[in-house]
């Protein structure tokens, strides 16, 4: 990161190089050619005295790279994007850039010159996807495009002034290619051996289940690890807004939703993908995240024989998943009564896995619940195992996963046995 003196020099050199490149019309050259040309120009300008400001070799090299990053890449964000420990970047103001490391948010010394500097980075990110973020369209959700980079496909949310009251805002949730297995996640502290066995059984046993939790709790990480267990003789459809579910499998198709273009055309929704996927005869349908009316079409897919389907939704806990799904299905406008929708949900989904990120930054499965049908006008659920916190000092949490004594239903046991799952001790705990 640059000191105030280095930032001032970088902005001066950047303007000079940009002006000279424009004059020479070198922006039409190949990327490699113009980058080297700009580098040579910047080196020349750095050697010039400006009010007695001289830099040593190391600092000059740092400023030089910052100039190139601002000209052709994403400026001050480059350092954070390539840092493998950083999982999220939030720009609240030019001088207020925060990052998530190990599940905990931290301030940084990274800063932009001003709001125009931030806006230039936003324009470069959203423009690469054919979108815009300006006074006419002040909010944009897209992905960061950098083919070959480990953060290619990261989720981006940009909010520009005047919707952003004080400053342009940018949030980047970095994509990380997760190769973690369930064993890896267990060893990281996400769950224990008993939960590992439950997850394996309901996945192999072709149970339909929900993974619920808040933003950044590890839902997709867990879903990726589970998908690695899908038998290789089953055809799998992966449907997502942002392509994050990636695993090796011989018979998988991956479809991605897309927003409408500037003319309002070309939109493909998750709901469109779910409907279209049924024509491809998948055995399982995996929806990266249900947010709206596509929930109804996923229920129809499950009820028509696509067993072993999985999705994630935003909810605080297992029981909070039911009103969340009710709201989504109502958005489909099918005119169903709330009780009928919940009954439909209870007959389609079998289990709910709840996950959260603690104040210590650790992501944990907090509950696994079985959906047991209806009780009056509500979905009856039985918690099989839950995380009980024993102690915390606000920075560290200690606890254990405790079976509740709830027994899994004979119907689910029978279905899992048919898929080759042998009797497990936790079935009768």
Question: Secondary-structure blueprint of this entry?
Answer:
Layout: H1 4-24, H2 31-46, H3 57-72, H4 77-81, E1 86-93, E2 96-101, E3 104-107, H5 115-127, E4 139-143, E5 155-159, E6 169-173, H6 182-187, H7 193-204, E7 209-213, H8 219-227, E8 236-240, E9 252-256, H9 270-277, E10 284-287, H10 294-303, E11 310-314, H11 321-330, H12 338-348, E12 351-357, E13 363-375, E14 378-392, E15 397-403, H13 410-418
Helix pairs in contact: 1-2, 1-3, 2-3, 9-10, 10-12, 11-12
Description:
The chain has 429 residues and is an alpha/beta fold. The chain has 2 domains: 4-173, Beta-Lactamase, CATH 3.30.450; 182-428, P-loop containing nucleotide triphosphate hydrolases (Rossmann fold). 34% of the residues lie in helices and 23% in strands. The chain contains 13 helices and 15 strands. A 9-stranded mixed β-sheet has the order 9-8-10-11-7-12-13-14-15, with helices on both faces. It has a 6-stranded antiparallel β-sheet with strand order 3-2-1-6-5-4. A hairpin with a 2-residue loop joins strand 13 and strand 14 (378-392). Helix 1 packs across helix 2 (31-46), helix 2 (31-46) packs antiparallel against helix 3 and helix 11 (321-330) packs across helix 12. The chain is elongated and about 80 Å long. The model has no long low-confidence stretch (mean pLDDT 89).
Q: What are the defining features of this structure?
A:
ATP hydrolysis activity, 429 residues, single chain, 2 domains, 34% helix, alpha/beta, Rossmann fold, 13 helices, nine-stranded mixed beta sheet
